[in-house]
């Protein structure tokens, strides 16, 4: 395959065609619906580039209001860790910070967790998933089964994110994420996991909204903050979850 924008777009288009057929999507939406109808909040976490997918779930125009984003930086913003901790290149591999992130979060019993990690093997995501399940929460993973199967876990238990989740959404990214091989082998370009994981997140949200509509409920959905009355609409809905959802930069 050549290195061209057309080839990359073709790869992405192929994935976009097949991903909506995943039978795990309605299963994930059922867990979303279960949590929301019980008064729960969707707690989304991703490290590295996977944080972009957590942002797609939490606080997004056209998305669900009862959503909260957890992040590595919470140990500084909401905890007492020094700012220098965020300069660690291996921070997402450290399982010990998962408990701090979770303990700092405004979590309640009916909350559902979505953990996003392309590899699904780094210490913080595996430990966070372990703690979430120990505390009795439902857990959805968005990950690459191909990549996860090809590498060893970096968690002391040897487990991976996909081993712990109630529902696993496969973003279908290849091992290494990028889809276009450079001449001579070695590196590749054209990562796809952010695109496909965001698509999965949106499909789950849309199916959840459909579930709520079919149950006769009014889905709590954000307006864009950049349309008239957007702020007033959003603040009114957010007030229903005061102290449970964080909205920041």
UniProtKB/TrEMBL annotation:
Keyword Transcription in annotation: no
Residue ranges of domain SIS in the record: 28-223
GO terms of biological process kind: carbohydrate derivative metabolic process
Species the sequence originates in: Nonomuraea terrae
Gene Ontology terms, MF aspect: carbohydrate derivative binding; isomerase activity
Keywords: Isomerase
NCBIfam families the UniProt entry points to: PRK02947.1 (NF002805)
Isomerase as UniProt keyword: yes
Signal sequence, start to end: none
InterPro entries: RpiR-like_SIS, SIS_dom, SIS_dom_sf, SIS_GmhA/DiaA_subfam
Database matches in SUPFAM superfamilies: SIS domain
Protein name per the record: Sugar isomerase domain-containing protein
């Amino acid at each position: 395959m050549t290195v061209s924008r057309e080839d990359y777009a073709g790869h992405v288009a192929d994935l976009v065609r097949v991903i909506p057929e995943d039978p795990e999507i309605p299963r994930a939406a059922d867990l979303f619906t279960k949590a929301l109808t019980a008064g729960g909040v969707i707690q989304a976490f991703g490290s590295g580039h996977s944080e972009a997918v957590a942002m797609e779930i939490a606080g997004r125009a056209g998305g669900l209001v009862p959503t909260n984003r957890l992040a590595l930086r919470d140990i500084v913003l909401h905890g007492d860790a020094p700012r220098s901790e965020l300069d660690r290149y291996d921070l997402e591999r450290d399982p010990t910070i998962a408990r701090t992130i979770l303990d700092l979060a405004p979590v309640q019993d009916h909350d559902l967790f979505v953990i996003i990690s392309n590899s699904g093997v780094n210490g913080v995501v595996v430990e966070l998933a372990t703690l979430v399940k120990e505390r009795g929460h439902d857990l959805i993973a968005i990950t690459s089964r191909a990549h996860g199967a090809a590498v060893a876990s970096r968690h002391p238990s040897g487990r991976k994110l996909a081993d712990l989740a109630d529902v696993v959404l496969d973003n279908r990214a290849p091992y290494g994420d990028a889809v276009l091989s450079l001449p001579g082998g070695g590196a590749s370009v054209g990562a796809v996991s952010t695109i496909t994981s965001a698509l999965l997140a949106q499909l789950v949200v849309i199916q959840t909204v459909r579930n709520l509509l079919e149950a006769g409920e009014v889905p709590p959905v954000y307006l864009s903050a950049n349309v008239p009355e957007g702020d007033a609409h959003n603040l009114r809905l957010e007030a229903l979850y005061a102290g449970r959802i964080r909205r920041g930069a």
